[in-house]
Here is the input.
Amino acid sequence: MSKFDKITDFGNIYKIVKKSKTLNDAGDIDVGTSKYIIECKESVSKNIKSKDYFDKYLNQKNEKYINLNGRKSVLAIKSFKNNAIDITHPVFKALQRKGVIIITDIQQLKKLK
Here is the structure.
């Protein structure tokens, strides 16, 4: 990605701060560039099976919102092997309708430019 865009985040954890007090973790950004927030997964896991999984990147009203620059959200999944679901699963379709780009191949990641 660094060949195509500036890396701004790499495994950064964000905290919820209210009235100068740190409450808890809002979440993390696996890889962030000036244009994208990329959530990287080795394989599909149960926590992705929720349509609200990307809410912290998409919904400005979410208390845990961590996408202050309004970057596009990307879910990069290395493998669907050994999983009963695939890219056609309703949760992935719902994420795509919300604007999340789903990538299942490194070549697709290179096309994000």
